[in-house]
Structure formats: C-alpha cells, structure tokens
Amino acid sequence: MDIKSLKSDFPIFKNIPSLVYLDSTATSLKPKSVIDKEIEYYEKYSANVFRGVYKISEKATEEYEETRKIIADFINAEKTDEIIFTRSTTESINLVAYSLGRKIINQGDDIVTSIMEHHSNFVPWQQLALENGATFKVIDITDDGFLDLDFAMLDKIITKKTKILALTYISNVLGTINPIKKIAKAVKSINPKVIVVVDAAQAVPHMNVNVQDLGCDFLTFSSHKMLGPTGVGVLWGRYELLAEMFPFNYGGEMIQEVYIDKTIFKSPPHKFEAGTPHISGVIALKEAINYLKRIGMDHVRAHEKKILHYAIDSLETEYGKKIKIIGPRTLENRAGIVAFTFAGYHSHDIAQVLDEEGVCIRAGHHCAMPLHNRLGVNASARASFYIYNTNYDVDMIVNGLKKVIKILG
C-alpha cells in the first residue's frame, strides 16, 4: 500500500501533521470520504428513516438499508435481514444476553467464556449466570497467550449443560487470533445446541471474516474501529435464532400492530431496532467498508503483520529484558496489537511522556481486568496498528521510551 497517499485521505493528519496515532484498537481514524458521507445525510436528505413517504425520507431509508446489504456481503451473511444495527459491540452482546440468554439459561446450565475477554464479552454473561443460577466457566490462557484448550479434552469444558460459548476472535490486549472455526466445529460436535457468540470487534476491521465459514451463531463488531463513525454497532445472527428472540427495546418502528391487550412485533432485523437510529452513522459506515474493500482485507492484514514484526523486533532489540511484550510470538496467530510493560514504569506515565512526543498509545487494563490479574500486572501500555501506520511510527515509540527513562529515572 502507498501509505503516504493513503494518509492524505485522513484530514486529521493535515490538521496534526506530526501525529503518531497508535490506538486504533480503541477507535480508528476516519477518512474524508466517510466524514463527507455523514455530512451528506445532514445536508441533502436529513429525514427520519422508514416513516416518511416524501422523497428525502425515502432517500435516507434507501441509503440506510444499502449499508445493511453491504455489511451482509462484507461478512458473507446468508440474509440481509440477519444484520442488526446497534450502538456498539457492547450493546450487540448485551442484546444477545438479554433477548436470547434470559430465554434459554436456567439454573444448572453452563455459560462458558475466557479470561482474555473484553469486559463487554465477560460481564454480561457473568451477570446472566448469577441472575439465573447458571455456572459461569472461564477458559484460562497459556503463558504464551493462547487459549488453554486441549481439543482432545474439550468435553471437560463443553458438556450437555453448556448453553452459550462466548469468545473473542482477537484479544484486544494479547493480540491473539483465536481459531474460532476450529473451536466452533469441535464444540458443536460435543453439543450441537451450544450457541457460539463471537466478539469480532478487533477482527472485522483487520482481516477477512466469513460468518458462514466460521460456524458461529452470533458475531458482533463496531463501526468506529473500522474507519466508520462512533455510535454504530453491528450484530449478525442466524435468522432462525433472531426470529425466536424477544425484542431488546420496545418503541417506534419495531411494531407491526398494537392493541390494548397485545402487540405484534416486526420480523428481524427491525424487531431489534426500536426508535430513531444513528442514521448518518449507519449511512457513513458503508463508505468505510467500501474504503477497506478498495484496499483489500488481505492487504490490510499483510501490512499490519509487517509493522508488527518490525515493532516487536525493534523494541526487544533496543530494550532487551527491560521490556516485556505480552502475547503470542508467532505473527500468524497475532494481530497488530503490542501490549507491554516497561522497566517498572506505570503505563500511564509511559503514555503521558509519549504524548509529549506526539505519540498516542493506550494505558491501563484496556477493559480486561481479569486478564491483567491473570498476567500478574495491574496495567499495560498498548500500541495498535492500522492501515495508516508505518515503521516510522514504531521508531517514535522506541525513541520515546528513551525519554521515559530520562525523565522518570
């Protein structure tokens, strides 16, 4: 990829030429075409969707529904109606936990997740288990950052009591790419009724994702992590499951008919989209997807692997045992995320010093406290890479850490 040309598509680099942005795991930057698409809605057809018979409302609805079709194609959903718009990955997971989980989970059932999960794919299931009297099982990790799964012994974890398995596709701390397809197939062979929920917030923006090939039942991701606007999430689910679930919210546009004594709801996806949505954000999301498609997801992944290799090699060559990089060492099993601890300095201090050099990284537990407790660290610094990053950005981290030593002693 021609990164110099690509970066010119992002207005933030024109406004802050010295910016070194290494926090795309939290939220990505936005190209001008996405920003323009959102503005287009407000300037040319700013009306509510579905509810108007006048031209600009019909135009808004057409643009909004076109995004649903583009997403379905992007992740290879069987039906467009399997795509539900939410506010975030977090809301998407909570929707499944509320609308399906509270329907199927009873006392004595098992819910399984892992220690590497983001809080959004941990706490909803933990709370559901506590409320309904289910057993909450947490899969551990190995010392090198992989799920501690012996497939020959998987029936010790997954049993006839297991109702839900919720796993991240890519850890937002370790960078581990979990073998979701292999896991889903193995789990379904033990208990075909297990519902497999995948948090793909860190996967869909960075690699090819095919929901039919994965063999999962639900998959979630966010617009803002893949060049799109904030405030838009996506839930994909198998249609037969969505059709059986009760609504998450009640209100406008998810209604078929209302009577004094009963209400008939619309079919999916609209059954789950009560109220006025983030119309401009959904419309602009399709431009973000089109932007990524023009680059090609294989190229996105290849670019990140090159920077990841350079980053790990540069940091360890320069600092040796002073730096501890968390997660797998094999590039094939790792996304463009480098979380680390450095010479006993607190991650917030590291981030603050790097910020003075124009370098943006994340510091803290990254909404993964159980994982950090398992690793024996209270916080970590995290650099994450995307299509607009280069080796120069890595060099800025390396040099910035020298300043950390100089300032903090």
TrEMBL record:
<dbReference type="InterPro" id="IPR010970">
    <property type="entry name" value="Cys_dSase_SufS"/>
</dbReference>
<dbReference type="InterPro" id="IPR015422">
    <property type="entry name" value="PyrdxlP-dep_Trfase_small"/>
</dbReference>
<dbReference type="InterPro" id="IPR020578">
    <property type="entry name" value="Aminotrans_V_PyrdxlP_BS"/>
</dbReference>
<dbReference type="GO" id="GO:0030170">
    <property type="term" value="F:pyridoxal phosphate binding"/>
</dbReference>
<dbReference type="GO" id="GO:0006534">
    <property type="term" value="P:cysteine metabolic process"/>
</dbReference>
<feature type="domain" description="Aminotransferase class V">
    <location>
        <begin position="20"/>
        <end position="396"/>
    </location>
</feature>
<dbReference type="InterPro" id="IPR015421">
    <property type="entry name" value="PyrdxlP-dep_Trfase_major"/>
</dbReference>
<comment type="similarity">
    <text>Belongs to the class-V pyridoxal-phosphate-dependent aminotransferase family. Csd subfamily.</text>
</comment>
<keyword id="KW-0808">Transferase</keyword>
<dbReference type="GO" id="GO:0031071">
    <property type="term" value="F:cysteine desulfurase activity"/>
</dbReference>
<protein>
    <recommendedName>
        <fullName>Cysteine desulfurase</fullName>
        <ecNumber>2.8.1.7</ecNumber>
    </recommendedName>
</protein>
<dbReference type="InterPro" id="IPR015424">
    <property type="entry name" value="PyrdxlP-dep_Trfase"/>
</dbReference>
<dbReference type="Pfam" id="PF00266">
    <property type="entry name" value="Aminotran_5"/>
</dbReference>
<dbReference type="InterPro" id="IPR000192">
    <property type="entry name" value="Aminotrans_V_dom"/>
</dbReference>
<comment type="function">
    <text>Catalyzes the removal of elemental sulfur and selenium atoms from L-cysteine, L-cystine, L-selenocysteine, and L-selenocystine to produce L-alanine.</text>
</comment>
<keyword id="KW-0663">Pyridoxal phosphate</keyword>
